[in-house]
Amino acid sequence: MSDNLEAKIEQAIRNPQNLGEMKDADAVGTVGNADCGDMLRMWIKFKEENGRKIIDRATFQSFGCQTAIAVASVATELLKGKTTEEAKMMSGEDLAAPLGALPPVKIHCAQLVEGALRNALAPETQPISDGRNDASTLLQQMSSAGKKVKVVLD
Ligand code: FES
Question: How far apart are CA 128 and CA 96, in angstroms?
Answer without folding.
Answer: 26
